[in-house]
Amino acid sequence: MPEVRVIEIHENIFADNERTAQQVRKYCSDNKTFFLNVMSAPGSGKTTMLVELINRLKDTCSIFEMDVDICSTLDAKRVADLTGVPSLQIHNGGLCHIDADMMQRALQQVDLSGIDLLILENIGNLVCPAEFDTGAMKNIMLLSVPEGHDKPLKYPLMFQVADLIVVNKIDTMAYFDFDVNQFKKNLQTVNPNAEVISISAKTGEGMEKLVRWVENEIQKVKK
Amino acid sequence: MPEVRVIEIHENIFADNERTAQQVRKYCSDNKTFFLNVMSAPGSGKTTMLVELINRLKDTCSIFEMDVDICSTLDAKRVADLTGVPSLQIHNGGLCHIDADMMQRALQQVDLSGIDLLILENIGNLVCPAEFDTGAMKNIMLLSVPEGHDKPLKYPLMFQVADLIVVNKIDTMAYFDFDVNQFKKNLQTVNPNAEVISISAKTGEGMEKLVRWVENEIQKVKK
Question: What's the pTM?
Answer without folding.
Answer: 0.91
